[in-house]
Amino acid sequence: MPPASIRKLSIPEGLRLARNAHGGGRIDEADALCLSIVRLDETSAPAFHLLGLSALRNGHRQKAFDYLTHAVALDEDSSTYWIDLARVHRCDGDFDSAKRVLAEAYQRFPESVDVLIEQGDRAAIVKDLDAAIEFYEAAFARDPSRVRVAYNLGVQLADRGLQREAIDAFRHAVELRPEFADAHFNLALVLSELQQPIEAGEHYAEVLQLEPNNTQARFFRSLELLRAGDFDNGWHDYECRWTQQPDDRGALPYAPWDGSSVERRRVFVHSEQGVGDEIMFASCLGDLAEDAQHCLLECDARLVPLMRRSFPRVTVIDRPNGDGSNVRREFPSADCYVSLGSLPRHFRSRRDEFPHRLAYLRADEREVVEFRRRLDRLGAGLKVGISWRGGKRPGVRHRKSTELADWLPILRSPGVEFVNLQYGSCEDELQTLIQEHGVRLHRIADVDPLSALDRFASLISSLDLVLSVSNTTVHLAGALGVPAWMLLSYAGDWRWGLGTDLSPWYSTLRIFRQAAPGEWTNVYEEISGALKQIHAVSMPATADAMQHTRAKTG
């Protein structure tokens, strides 16, 4: 028998109390009311529905499935019951069953926006971007007042690479809910990809107005400031990068450097994440070494020989493990520390503080001579190294990288011997290039660009020119003073600035930018044309040609 308090209530009143209890998080109370109701009325679909939601909330998926299946059987005309049954399947990882339930729900309720949204959510989870976009667009068309629909549509469009369409969706979301911080943040991300740093910065600022402690937004805003050339403000917020990556600075037994005089102080320079960053930011190391009593630099072990040779006044050690014990062992006495990527804040706060110099890293001269002898045997033409892939994360790699076969207009340039500088596995691509197009890249088999960076630097230094997408190879070439032409995607990294073919970081770097997102054709054509010009100049002498190249890159 149900409790007297329940027996005195009507079933509708009992359901109202159960819904209130469930909405207020009083799950046990809601369950007790619903169980009493179903004892009185075994056909109460709303009571079974609430029991199913409670079970799902408590992680009892089988119970949730049983209750919600029963609710649907009792009342097939409630789209909510079908949607929640699909959610149980989704939470259980059974996306196929969820899809089948939602397909039947759509047949029954073709005008239901909620069914379309749930279909979009399921498709988004399984990374079926096209289906997710189709469902969200249908839901948006039927009810453009749904903030969540506009936002989710924007996310899927952005993931699909449809940035302009994503901007429209995110704009609509922030118009509907101006305090929606996530929508402002994602709108800023997409604006950044379309090279609109000013407006992107404005939306990051909106996020920070709403969430002042949002260090992710502060960090990303710093990248837009740096991209636009506002180095003073950009470097200040760039310190937030440590909230976005592993931070082991707490293990260091030194106080952070506050920017005061280091004339009588020993400074420990803490490493950065990524070899490319370490190479680029090392351009400021000489400034610090000139001011400080002494410097110690930690860096990726693969860079240690190169850094020691290039900065003889600096003690260079490889990056420590664990608690940083080998830092204290090798350099027990230090007065303060600074991270390598924080040096520009002190030495590069204005554009005119970037020095115009050919190189700051120095390869092994004996190895360079050896490689030049080997390269001379390839022929009389220019020796040009190429690298066509970059990036570690899938999204970044897809944006930065190219297909080797698409380089044919470049690789068929007259008077050039091309040398493979691509790291990682690329044997299949090289074989396809030979078999299908009759084009061969020269390979230097005893150089591993991943594990032997010092020897790789020597190979790069022996070349006349390097052609590469944005990756470590570009940083090495630029730091070594080797002429380099970089193929840059439309959404280029912050460090390469806006609307220029020059770089403040590397005097010998020339940038070839995509004219539109994902479109490399103009880049290939421009580089091919530039190589033909060099070939024409180099007809009497290669040395004259490279003087021309350096003038173009400087």
Care to describe what's here?
The protein has 554 residues and is α/β, with parallel strands linked by helices. The protein is 54% helix and 9% strand. Strands 1-5-2-3-4 form a five-stranded parallel beta sheet. A five-stranded parallel beta sheet has the order 7-6-8-9-10, with helices on both faces. Helix 4 packs antiparallel against helix 5 and helix 9 runs antiparallel to helix 10. 42% of the residues are buried. The C terminus is likely disordered.
Describe the structure concisely for a colleague.
By secondary structure, this protein is of the alpha/beta class. It contains 28 helices and 10 strands.
Give the arrangement of secondary structure elements:
Blueprint: H1 4-7, H2 11-23, H3 27-40, H4 45-57, H5 61-74, H6 79-91, H7 95-108, H8 113-125, H9 129-142, H10 147-159, H11 163-176, H12 181-193, H13 197-210, H14 215-227, H15 231-238, E1 255-256, E2 266-270, H16 275-281, H17 285-291, E3 294-299, H18 304-310, E4 314-318, H19 325-330, E5 336-339, H20 343-347, H21 365-376, E6 382-387, H22 394-400, H23 408-411, E7 416-420, H24 427-437, H25 453-461, E8 465-469, H26 472-480, E9 484-488, E10 509-513, H27 521-537, H28 542-553
Parallel strand pairs: 1-5, 2-3, 2-5, 3-4, 6-7, 6-8, 8-9, 9-10
Helix pairs in contact: 2-3, 2-4, 3-4, 4-5, 5-6, 6-7, 6-8, 7-8, 8-9, 9-10, 10-11, 10-12, 11-12, 12-13, 13-14, 14-15, 16-26, 21-25, 27-28
